[in-house]
Each structure stands twice: as structure tokens, then as C-alpha cells.
Design brief:
The chain is mainly alpha-helical. The chain is 78% helix and 0% strand.
């Protein structure tokens, strides 16, 4: 890898980490959870009430790259909802003064464990939504 690739990768990782840090704050997690829930409800309403709504998307399935857009739409809304709800139900303890010294490692490890568990749960919700949507349509 050259320096340009390393810089691009570092910027991408930093932006992703900053987004996760912002998602932990209540002023961002509540609206994100609401948007995710409403978006998921709209998708399911369209799939259940109007099954022909998915026909154009599934015909794109043979096109290759267009299916990435469909899967992304089906994946993102429930993932954002699950991540937002997870941060609402399990708030971070970082609101207090940061611990320095002996207990700081435990606090950082606890925050990291909570974050990866919520990310895995959110990804599972998104994947389940994609699978159920395609199975329901068939």
C-alpha cells in the first residue's frame, strides 16, 4: 500500500469511529432510532400490502450492481434502529467524569465490549430484515 491508500484508510476508519461515538449520545441516538423504525415500517408496509412493490427491485437482482442498492436500503434502516435503540436502552457511563489511573482500562474495555455487541446485534437485525423481505416476497 502506498501513502495515499494508507491515508484514505485512516480517514475512513476515523470517520466510522466518530459516527459510532456520535451515535452513543442521546441527542443523536433517539432520532436515529426513530428514523430507522419508521423506515423499516414503511418498507414492510410496502412489501406486505403491495407485494408488486418489490418486483422492480427483484428484477434488478439479475443486473448485479443494482442489487447492492436494494440490499443496502433493506439493511440500513433496521440496523440504524437497532443501534439507536441499543444506545437508548443501554446508555453509556461516559457522562460522568472520565476515570483516570487504575480504573480507566476497565471503563475503556467495558465501552468497547458494549459497542461491538451492539454493532453485531444491529447487523443481525439488518441481515434478518433482508432475508425475511426476500423470503416473504417469494
Amino acid at each position: 500500500m502506498n501513502d495515499e491508500d494508507n491515508e484514505f484508510l485512516e480517514n475512513t476508519v476515523n470517520q466510522g469511529t466518530n459516527m459510532l461515538d456520535r451515535m452513543e449520545r442521546p441527542e443523536f441516538s433517539r432520532p436515529a432510532a426513530a428514523v430507522g423504525i419508521v423506515g423499516t415500517a414503511v418498507i414492510w408496509f410496502m412489501v406486505v400490502i403491495f407485494p408488486e412493490f418489490m418486483d422492480p427491485f427483484l428484477s434488478m437482482f439479475q443486473m448485479g450492481k443494482a442489487i447492492i442498492l436494494v440490499i443496502t436500503i433493506l439493511f440500513v434502516f433496521p440496523s440504524v434502529a437497532a443501534l439507536g435503540l441499543g444506545h437508548i436502552l443501554f446508555p453509556s457511563l461516559d457522562d460522568e467524569a472520565p476515570v483516570t489511573g487504575f480504573g480507566s482500562g476497565y471503563q475503556q474495555r467495558d465501552k468497547s465490549e458494549k459497542r461491538w455487541k451492539l454493532i453485531i446485534a444491529a447487523a443481525m437485525c439488518g441481515i434478518l430484515n433482508v432475508i425475511l423481505t426476500f423470503f416473504l416476497h417469494r
